[in-house]
Design goal:
This protein has 470 residues and is an alpha/beta fold. The chain has 2 domains: 283 residues, 3-Layer(aba) Sandwich (Aminopeptidase); 152 residues, Alpha-Beta Plaits (2-Layer Sandwich). A 6-stranded mixed sheet has the order 1-2-6-3-7-17, with helices on both faces. A 4-stranded mixed sheet has the order 16-9-8-18. The longest helix has 18 residues. The radius of gyration is 25 Å and the shape is globular. The N terminus is likely disordered.
Protein backbone atom coordinates (compact mmCIF):
# COMPACT_ATOMS: atom_id res chain seq x y z
CA UNK A 1 0.00 0.00 0.00
CA UNK A 2 2.79 2.41 0.89
CA UNK A 3 4.56 1.65 -2.40
CA UNK A 4 1.38 2.29 -4.37
CA UNK A 5 0.95 5.69 -2.69
CA UNK A 6 4.50 6.77 -3.43
CA UNK A 7 4.02 6.68 -7.18
CA UNK A 8 1.02 9.06 -7.27
CA UNK A 9 2.73 11.32 -4.74
CA UNK A 10 5.87 11.41 -6.86
CA UNK A 11 3.80 12.24 -9.93
CA UNK A 12 2.00 14.97 -8.00
CA UNK A 13 5.33 16.43 -6.92
CA UNK A 14 6.54 16.55 -10.53
CA UNK A 15 3.27 18.19 -11.55
CA UNK A 16 3.62 20.84 -8.86
CA UNK A 17 7.16 21.58 -9.99
CA UNK A 18 5.88 22.12 -13.51
CA UNK A 19 3.27 24.66 -12.39
CA UNK A 20 4.51 28.26 -12.05
CA UNK A 21 5.29 28.80 -8.39
CA UNK A 22 2.96 31.73 -7.94
CA UNK A 23 -0.02 29.57 -8.93
CA UNK A 24 0.83 27.34 -5.96
CA UNK A 25 0.49 30.32 -3.61
CA UNK A 26 4.17 31.11 -3.36
CA UNK A 27 6.98 32.76 -5.26
CA UNK A 28 10.23 31.02 -6.11
CA UNK A 29 13.69 32.17 -5.17
CA UNK A 30 14.23 33.14 -8.80
CA UNK A 31 11.03 35.25 -8.78
CA UNK A 32 12.14 37.08 -5.67
CA UNK A 33 15.69 37.55 -6.94
CA UNK A 34 14.40 39.06 -10.18
CA UNK A 35 12.08 41.44 -8.33
CA UNK A 36 14.94 42.45 -6.03
CA UNK A 37 17.24 43.09 -9.03
CA UNK A 38 14.64 45.32 -10.67
CA UNK A 39 14.21 47.30 -7.46
CA UNK A 40 17.98 47.70 -7.11
CA UNK A 41 18.22 48.98 -10.67
CA UNK A 42 15.42 51.52 -10.16
CA UNK A 43 16.74 52.73 -6.78
CA UNK A 44 20.14 53.21 -8.41
CA UNK A 45 18.75 55.71 -10.90
CA UNK A 46 18.30 59.24 -9.58
CA UNK A 47 14.76 60.18 -10.62
CA UNK A 48 14.33 63.30 -8.50
CA UNK A 49 12.85 66.36 -10.16
CA UNK A 50 15.75 68.53 -9.02
CA UNK A 51 18.78 66.48 -10.12
CA UNK A 52 17.55 63.39 -11.93
CA UNK A 53 15.42 62.04 -14.73
CA UNK A 54 12.79 59.33 -15.07
CA UNK A 55 13.92 58.54 -18.62
CA UNK A 56 16.77 56.12 -17.74
CA UNK A 57 14.44 54.27 -15.37
CA UNK A 58 11.72 53.98 -18.01
CA UNK A 59 14.27 52.74 -20.53
CA UNK A 60 15.69 50.20 -18.07
CA UNK A 61 12.26 48.65 -17.54
CA UNK A 62 11.59 48.72 -21.28
CA UNK A 63 14.79 46.74 -21.95
CA UNK A 64 13.74 44.05 -19.50
CA UNK A 65 10.26 43.72 -20.97
CA UNK A 66 11.49 43.59 -24.57
CA UNK A 67 14.13 41.03 -23.64
CA UNK A 68 11.36 38.88 -22.15
CA UNK A 69 9.59 38.82 -25.49
CA UNK A 70 7.06 41.65 -25.36
CA UNK A 71 6.82 43.17 -28.86
CA UNK A 72 8.50 46.54 -29.29
CA UNK A 73 5.16 48.06 -30.29
CA UNK A 74 3.78 47.05 -26.88
CA UNK A 75 6.64 48.61 -24.89
CA UNK A 76 6.81 52.36 -25.36
CA UNK A 77 8.85 55.09 -23.70
CA UNK A 78 6.99 58.34 -24.31
CA UNK A 79 6.73 61.77 -22.76
CA UNK A 80 6.98 65.54 -23.17
CA UNK A 81 10.77 65.89 -23.07
CA UNK A 82 14.01 63.97 -22.71
CA UNK A 83 14.08 63.98 -18.91
CA UNK A 84 10.43 63.17 -18.14
CA UNK A 85 9.67 60.05 -20.13
CA UNK A 86 7.12 57.42 -19.09
CA UNK A 87 7.06 53.66 -19.64
CA UNK A 88 3.84 52.14 -20.97
CA UNK A 89 3.74 48.41 -21.67
CA UNK A 90 0.94 46.05 -22.62
CA UNK A 91 0.70 42.31 -22.01
CA UNK A 92 -1.84 41.14 -24.57
CA UNK A 93 -4.75 39.01 -23.45
CA UNK A 94 -7.63 37.22 -25.13
CA UNK A 95 -9.76 40.35 -25.24
CA UNK A 96 -12.67 38.74 -23.42
CA UNK A 97 -12.78 41.75 -21.10
CA UNK A 98 -11.61 45.36 -21.30
CA UNK A 99 -8.02 46.15 -20.23
CA UNK A 100 -6.92 47.12 -16.73
CA UNK A 101 -4.17 49.58 -15.90
CA UNK A 102 -1.38 49.09 -13.34
CA UNK A 103 0.06 52.45 -12.28
CA UNK A 104 3.14 53.50 -10.31
CA UNK A 105 5.38 56.54 -10.54
CA UNK A 106 9.11 56.47 -11.16
CA UNK A 107 10.02 59.88 -9.75
CA UNK A 108 10.99 60.36 -6.12
CA UNK A 109 11.43 63.30 -3.79
CA UNK A 110 14.90 64.76 -3.24
CA UNK A 111 17.32 62.81 -1.04
CA UNK A 112 20.54 64.55 0.00
CA UNK A 113 23.31 62.01 0.67
CA UNK A 114 24.69 64.11 3.55
CA UNK A 115 21.33 63.76 5.34
CA UNK A 116 21.29 59.96 5.14
CA UNK A 117 23.32 57.36 7.01
CA UNK A 118 23.81 55.44 3.72
CA UNK A 119 23.64 56.16 0.00
CA UNK A 120 19.99 56.95 -0.86
CA UNK A 121 20.51 55.85 -4.47
CA UNK A 122 21.90 52.40 -3.70
CA UNK A 123 19.57 49.61 -2.56
CA UNK A 124 21.06 48.44 0.73
CA UNK A 125 19.86 45.47 2.78
CA UNK A 126 20.67 45.73 6.46
CA UNK A 127 19.18 44.03 9.53
CA UNK A 128 16.14 42.78 7.62
CA UNK A 129 15.35 46.07 5.89
CA UNK A 130 15.75 47.42 2.37
CA UNK A 131 16.99 51.03 2.35
CA UNK A 132 16.92 53.55 -0.49
CA UNK A 133 14.96 56.50 -1.83
CA UNK A 134 11.78 55.11 -3.28
CA UNK A 135 11.70 51.82 -1.39
CA UNK A 136 8.26 52.76 -0.05
CA UNK A 137 7.25 55.63 -2.38
CA UNK A 138 6.98 53.88 -4.74
CA UNK A 139 9.73 52.19 -6.68
CA UNK A 140 8.87 49.05 -4.74
CA UNK A 141 5.53 48.80 -6.52
CA UNK A 142 7.03 49.89 -9.87
CA UNK A 143 9.52 47.01 -9.58
CA UNK A 144 6.86 44.55 -8.41
CA UNK A 145 4.47 45.39 -11.26
CA UNK A 146 7.35 44.92 -13.70
CA UNK A 147 8.28 41.57 -12.14
CA UNK A 148 4.65 40.44 -12.31
CA UNK A 149 4.44 41.12 -16.05
CA UNK A 150 7.77 39.39 -16.63
CA UNK A 151 6.60 36.35 -14.66
CA UNK A 152 3.35 36.14 -16.59
CA UNK A 153 5.17 36.34 -19.90
CA UNK A 154 7.66 33.71 -18.84
CA UNK A 155 4.88 31.38 -17.61
CA UNK A 156 2.93 31.73 -20.84
CA UNK A 157 0.00 33.12 -18.85
CA UNK A 158 -2.66 34.48 -21.23
CA UNK A 159 -4.96 36.91 -19.38
CA UNK A 160 -8.57 37.34 -20.45
CA UNK A 161 -7.88 41.05 -20.90
CA UNK A 162 -4.90 43.23 -21.77
CA UNK A 163 -2.80 44.26 -18.77
CA UNK A 164 -1.30 47.73 -19.17
CA UNK A 165 1.63 48.90 -17.07
CA UNK A 166 2.31 52.65 -16.76
CA UNK A 167 5.37 53.86 -14.85
CA UNK A 168 5.22 57.63 -14.91
CA UNK A 169 7.02 60.89 -14.24
CA UNK A 170 6.11 63.96 -12.26
CA UNK A 171 3.88 62.62 -9.49
CA UNK A 172 6.00 64.22 -6.78
CA UNK A 173 6.05 67.65 -8.42
CA UNK A 174 7.14 69.66 -11.42
CA UNK A 175 5.34 70.52 -14.62
CA UNK A 176 5.62 67.21 -16.47
CA UNK A 177 3.10 64.93 -14.78
CA UNK A 178 3.12 61.67 -16.69
CA UNK A 179 -0.52 60.70 -16.18
CA UNK A 180 -1.74 64.12 -17.29
CA UNK A 181 0.52 63.98 -20.35
CA UNK A 182 -0.62 60.50 -21.31
CA UNK A 183 -4.29 61.42 -20.96
CA UNK A 184 -3.79 64.50 -23.11
CA UNK A 185 -1.50 63.01 -25.74
CA UNK A 186 -1.63 59.17 -25.71
CA UNK A 187 -4.89 58.19 -24.04
CA UNK A 188 -4.97 55.18 -26.35
CA UNK A 189 -1.97 53.68 -24.56
CA UNK A 190 -3.54 53.66 -21.10
CA UNK A 191 -7.28 53.49 -21.74
CA UNK A 192 -8.70 50.88 -19.34
CA UNK A 193 -11.86 49.93 -17.51
CA UNK A 194 -10.17 50.74 -14.18
CA UNK A 195 -6.76 51.33 -12.65
CA UNK A 196 -4.92 49.61 -9.82
CA UNK A 197 -2.65 52.29 -8.36
CA UNK A 198 0.36 51.09 -6.38
CA UNK A 199 0.62 54.54 -4.80
CA UNK A 200 -2.09 54.15 -2.17
CA UNK A 201 -4.06 51.60 -0.22
CA UNK A 202 -1.25 50.24 1.93
CA UNK A 203 -1.15 47.15 4.09
CA UNK A 204 -0.47 48.38 7.64
CA UNK A 205 1.35 46.23 10.18
CA UNK A 206 1.80 46.50 13.93
CA UNK A 207 4.81 44.72 15.46
CA UNK A 208 5.37 43.02 12.12
CA UNK A 209 1.81 41.64 11.86
CA UNK A 210 -0.52 43.03 9.20
CA UNK A 211 -3.86 44.17 10.61
CA UNK A 212 -5.30 46.47 7.92
CA UNK A 213 -5.46 46.01 4.14
CA UNK A 214 -6.52 49.40 2.78
CA UNK A 215 -8.16 49.90 -0.61
CA UNK A 216 -7.99 53.57 -1.56
CA UNK A 217 -11.15 54.44 -3.47
CA UNK A 218 -11.32 58.22 -3.05
CA UNK A 219 -9.21 61.22 -2.17
CA UNK A 220 -9.79 64.69 -0.88
CA UNK A 221 -9.83 67.67 -3.23
CA UNK A 222 -7.00 70.20 -3.04
CA UNK A 223 -7.64 73.97 -3.09
CA UNK A 224 -5.42 76.92 -2.07
CA UNK A 225 -7.00 80.20 -1.00
CA UNK A 226 -5.28 83.56 -0.74
CA UNK A 227 -6.37 85.78 2.14
CA UNK A 228 -5.26 89.40 1.72
CA UNK A 229 -5.66 92.61 3.69
CA UNK A 230 -4.61 95.97 2.25
CA UNK A 231 -4.60 99.43 3.79
CA UNK A 232 -2.81 102.77 3.56
CA UNK A 233 0.02 101.94 5.95
CA UNK A 234 2.11 104.77 7.36
CA UNK A 235 5.03 105.47 9.67
CA UNK A 236 5.60 102.93 12.43
CA UNK A 237 6.08 105.73 14.95
CA UNK A 238 2.41 106.64 14.49
CA UNK A 239 0.57 103.31 14.85
CA UNK A 240 -3.16 103.07 14.18
CA UNK A 241 -5.73 100.43 15.08
CA UNK A 242 -6.34 99.46 11.45
CA UNK A 243 -3.23 97.29 10.98
CA UNK A 244 -3.26 94.84 8.06
CA UNK A 245 -1.28 92.21 9.95
CA UNK A 246 -3.52 92.40 13.02
CA UNK A 247 -6.72 92.16 10.96
CA UNK A 248 -5.45 89.16 9.01
CA UNK A 249 -4.17 87.47 12.18
CA UNK A 250 -7.52 87.90 13.91
CA UNK A 251 -9.35 86.40 10.93
CA UNK A 252 -6.96 83.45 10.78
CA UNK A 253 -7.46 82.83 14.48
CA UNK A 254 -11.21 82.63 13.94
CA UNK A 255 -10.66 80.22 11.04
CA UNK A 256 -8.30 78.11 13.13
CA UNK A 257 -10.99 77.66 15.78
CA UNK A 258 -13.62 76.56 13.26
CA UNK A 259 -14.48 72.95 12.38
CA UNK A 260 -16.24 72.13 9.15
CA UNK A 261 -19.27 69.84 9.52
CA UNK A 262 -18.87 66.09 9.77
CA UNK A 263 -19.96 64.08 6.74
CA UNK A 264 -19.51 60.42 5.81
CA UNK A 265 -19.53 58.93 2.33
CA UNK A 266 -19.55 55.34 1.10
CA UNK A 267 -15.78 55.00 1.42
CA UNK A 268 -15.29 56.67 4.80
CA UNK A 269 -18.27 54.86 6.31
CA UNK A 270 -16.68 51.60 5.17
CA UNK A 271 -13.36 52.74 6.63
CA UNK A 272 -14.80 53.28 10.11
CA UNK A 273 -16.91 50.13 9.98
CA UNK A 274 -14.24 47.74 8.71
CA UNK A 275 -11.21 49.49 10.20
CA UNK A 276 -12.55 48.93 13.70
CA UNK A 277 -11.47 45.29 13.47
CA UNK A 278 -7.78 46.22 13.79
CA UNK A 279 -8.12 49.08 16.29
CA UNK A 280 -7.74 49.04 20.11
CA UNK A 281 -11.01 48.25 21.89
CA UNK A 282 -11.99 51.80 22.88
CA UNK A 283 -11.12 53.23 19.49
CA UNK A 284 -12.91 50.36 17.74
CA UNK A 285 -16.08 51.01 19.73
CA UNK A 286 -16.05 54.68 18.71
CA UNK A 287 -15.34 53.81 15.07
CA UNK A 288 -18.39 51.55 14.99
CA UNK A 289 -20.55 54.24 16.57
CA UNK A 290 -19.42 56.70 13.92
CA UNK A 291 -20.09 54.25 11.10
CA UNK A 292 -23.52 53.37 12.48
CA UNK A 293 -24.93 56.79 13.35
CA UNK A 294 -22.15 59.43 13.29
CA UNK A 295 -22.30 59.55 17.09
CA UNK A 296 -21.23 63.08 18.21
CA UNK A 297 -19.49 61.95 21.41
CA UNK A 298 -17.48 59.29 19.54
CA UNK A 299 -16.54 61.85 16.90
CA UNK A 300 -15.29 64.27 19.57
CA UNK A 301 -13.18 61.60 21.20
CA UNK A 302 -11.53 60.35 18.02
CA UNK A 303 -10.99 63.71 16.32
CA UNK A 304 -9.42 65.17 19.48
CA UNK A 305 -6.97 62.25 19.61
CA UNK A 306 -6.05 61.95 15.94
CA UNK A 307 -5.60 64.45 13.08
CA UNK A 308 -6.06 61.50 10.72
CA UNK A 309 -9.53 60.67 12.03
CA UNK A 310 -10.42 64.35 11.92
CA UNK A 311 -9.31 64.59 8.28
CA UNK A 312 -11.36 61.51 7.35
CA UNK A 313 -14.54 63.07 8.68
CA UNK A 314 -14.55 66.65 7.45
CA UNK A 315 -13.19 69.22 5.06
CA UNK A 316 -10.17 71.03 6.52
CA UNK A 317 -8.75 74.48 5.77
CA UNK A 318 -5.47 75.50 7.42
CA UNK A 319 -3.09 78.45 7.14
CA UNK A 320 0.22 77.26 5.68
CA UNK A 321 2.08 80.43 4.61
CA UNK A 322 2.12 84.01 5.90
CA UNK A 323 3.78 87.25 4.86
CA UNK A 324 3.15 90.95 5.40
CA UNK A 325 4.65 94.40 5.47
CA UNK A 326 7.33 95.99 3.34
CA UNK A 327 9.71 97.71 5.77
CA UNK A 328 10.75 97.37 9.40
CA UNK A 329 9.85 101.00 10.17
CA UNK A 330 6.54 101.18 8.29
CA UNK A 331 3.00 100.11 9.01
CA UNK A 332 2.08 97.18 6.75
CA UNK A 333 0.21 98.06 3.59
CA UNK A 334 -0.50 94.40 2.83
CA UNK A 335 -0.70 91.08 4.63
CA UNK A 336 -1.16 87.73 2.88
CA UNK A 337 -1.84 84.17 3.99
CA UNK A 338 -2.17 80.94 2.05
CA UNK A 339 -4.94 78.71 3.35
CA UNK A 340 -4.79 75.13 2.11
CA UNK A 341 -8.12 73.30 1.94
CA UNK A 342 -8.53 69.55 1.59
CA UNK A 343 -12.17 69.08 0.75
CA UNK A 344 -14.32 65.98 0.97
CA UNK A 345 -14.85 64.55 -2.53
CA UNK A 346 -18.50 65.67 -2.72
CA UNK A 347 -17.87 69.13 -1.25
CA UNK A 348 -18.96 72.19 -3.26
CA UNK A 349 -15.91 74.49 -3.54
CA UNK A 350 -17.97 77.70 -3.67
CA UNK A 351 -19.62 76.65 -0.42
CA UNK A 352 -16.22 76.19 1.23
CA UNK A 353 -15.05 79.60 0.03
CA UNK A 354 -18.24 81.18 1.35
CA UNK A 355 -17.71 79.45 4.70
CA UNK A 356 -14.14 80.78 4.96
CA UNK A 357 -15.38 84.32 4.25
CA UNK A 358 -18.09 83.96 6.87
CA UNK A 359 -15.75 82.55 9.50
CA UNK A 360 -12.96 85.14 9.10
CA UNK A 361 -15.78 87.66 9.57
CA UNK A 362 -14.00 90.70 8.18
CA UNK A 363 -14.85 92.28 4.83
CA UNK A 364 -11.36 93.78 4.76
CA UNK A 365 -9.97 90.26 4.30
CA UNK A 366 -10.22 89.46 0.61
CA UNK A 367 -10.56 85.72 -0.08
CA UNK A 368 -9.60 84.53 -3.56
CA UNK A 369 -8.68 81.18 -5.11
CA UNK A 370 -4.94 80.74 -5.59
CA UNK A 371 -5.08 77.16 -6.93
CA UNK A 372 -8.42 76.02 -8.26
CA UNK A 373 -9.78 72.66 -7.11
CA UNK A 374 -10.00 69.68 -9.42
CA UNK A 375 -12.92 67.41 -8.43
CA UNK A 376 -12.11 63.81 -7.57
CA UNK A 377 -15.19 61.56 -7.73
CA UNK A 378 -15.44 58.41 -5.64
CA UNK A 379 -14.55 55.12 -7.30
CA UNK A 380 -17.38 52.60 -6.78
CA UNK A 381 -16.46 49.69 -4.54
CA UNK A 382 -17.00 46.93 -7.11
CA UNK A 383 -16.93 43.20 -6.22
CA UNK A 384 -14.60 42.48 -9.15
CA UNK A 385 -11.83 44.26 -7.24
CA UNK A 386 -12.86 43.83 -3.61
CA UNK A 387 -13.59 40.10 -3.66
CA UNK A 388 -10.13 38.93 -4.84
CA UNK A 389 -8.47 41.47 -2.55
CA UNK A 390 -10.42 40.03 0.38
CA UNK A 391 -9.73 36.39 -0.55
CA UNK A 392 -6.00 36.88 -1.01
CA UNK A 393 -5.76 39.00 2.14
CA UNK A 394 -7.44 36.28 4.21
CA UNK A 395 -4.94 33.73 2.93
CA UNK A 396 -1.82 35.85 3.29
CA UNK A 397 -2.61 37.92 6.39
CA UNK A 398 -5.30 36.14 8.43
CA UNK A 399 -7.23 38.58 10.59
CA UNK A 400 -6.30 41.69 8.58
CA UNK A 401 -9.35 43.78 7.76
CA UNK A 402 -9.93 44.94 4.18
CA UNK A 403 -10.73 48.62 4.64
CA UNK A 404 -11.95 51.14 2.03
CA UNK A 405 -9.94 54.33 2.50
CA UNK A 406 -9.96 57.96 1.46
CA UNK A 407 -6.58 59.57 0.76
CA UNK A 408 -6.24 62.83 2.68
CA UNK A 409 -3.37 63.89 0.43
CA UNK A 410 -3.28 63.38 -3.33
CA UNK A 411 -2.22 60.84 -5.96
CA UNK A 412 -2.24 60.66 -9.75
CA UNK A 413 -5.50 58.77 -9.42
CA UNK A 414 -7.10 62.22 -9.38
CA UNK A 415 -6.49 62.71 -13.10
CA UNK A 416 -7.72 59.27 -14.08
CA UNK A 417 -10.91 59.57 -12.02
CA UNK A 418 -11.64 62.88 -13.70
CA UNK A 419 -11.06 61.22 -17.06
CA UNK A 420 -13.78 58.69 -16.21
CA UNK A 421 -11.55 55.82 -15.06
CA UNK A 422 -12.18 54.39 -11.56
CA UNK A 423 -8.97 54.03 -9.52
CA UNK A 424 -8.24 51.65 -6.65
CA UNK A 425 -5.13 52.23 -4.59
CA UNK A 426 -3.81 48.77 -3.68
CA UNK A 427 -0.19 48.34 -2.62
CA UNK A 428 0.94 44.87 -1.66
CA UNK A 429 3.89 45.83 0.57
CA UNK A 430 3.09 45.96 4.31
CA UNK A 431 4.29 49.10 6.10
CA UNK A 432 4.98 49.24 9.83
CA UNK A 433 2.62 51.81 11.33
CA UNK A 434 5.36 53.31 13.51
CA UNK A 435 8.09 53.29 10.84
CA UNK A 436 6.73 54.92 7.69
CA UNK A 437 9.65 56.85 6.18
CA UNK A 438 8.39 57.94 2.76
CA UNK A 439 9.95 61.33 1.83
CA UNK A 440 12.17 61.07 4.90
CA UNK A 441 15.68 60.16 5.96
CA UNK A 442 16.78 56.54 5.53
CA UNK A 443 13.58 55.48 3.77
CA UNK A 444 13.09 51.74 4.15
CA UNK A 445 10.75 48.74 4.10
CA UNK A 446 11.14 45.29 5.59
CA UNK A 447 12.81 42.81 3.22
CA UNK A 448 10.12 40.25 3.97
CA UNK A 449 7.43 42.86 3.26
CA UNK A 450 8.79 43.33 -0.25
CA UNK A 451 8.57 39.59 -0.88
CA UNK A 452 5.01 39.57 0.49
CA UNK A 453 4.16 42.47 -1.81
CA UNK A 454 5.42 40.52 -4.82
CA UNK A 455 3.28 37.52 -3.96
CA UNK A 456 0.15 39.54 -3.17
CA UNK A 457 0.41 41.65 -6.31
CA UNK A 458 1.06 38.70 -8.60
CA UNK A 459 -1.91 36.81 -7.20
CA UNK A 460 -4.15 39.88 -7.43
CA UNK A 461 -3.25 40.76 -11.02
CA UNK A 462 -3.76 37.17 -12.13
CA UNK A 463 -7.11 37.11 -10.35
CA UNK A 464 -8.22 40.36 -11.97
CA UNK A 465 -7.25 39.04 -15.39
CA UNK A 466 -8.67 35.53 -15.14
CA UNK A 467 -11.58 35.73 -12.74
CA UNK A 468 -9.81 33.37 -10.30
CA UNK A 469 -7.95 34.26 -7.09
CA UNK A 470 -4.77 32.16 -7.37
Amino acid sequence: MLLRLRQPLAALSLLLLAIPSVLRGQTSGADRAEARAILAELIGINTTHEHGSTTPAAEAVARRLRAAGLPAADVQVVGPDSTHMNLVARLRGSGARKPILLLAHLDVVEALPQDWSLDPFTLTERDGYLYGRGTSDIKDEAAIFTAVLLGMKRDGFVPDRDIILALTAGEEGGEANGVQWLLANRRDLIDAVYCVNGDGGDVIARNGKAYSRNVQASEKVYMDLDLTVRNAGGHSSLPVRDNAIYRLSAGLSRLGAYDFPIRLNEVTRGFFERGAAGAPAAVAADMRLIAKRADPAAIRRLTSQSPFFNAQLRTTCVATMLDGGHAENALPQTAHANVNCRMLPDEIPDSVIATVRRVVADTAIRVTVRQAPVPSPLSPLIPEVLEPVERITREMWPGAAVVPSMETGATDGLYLRNAGMPVYGVSGVPLDEDDIRAHGRDERIRSSAYDEGLLFTDRLVRALSSGVAH
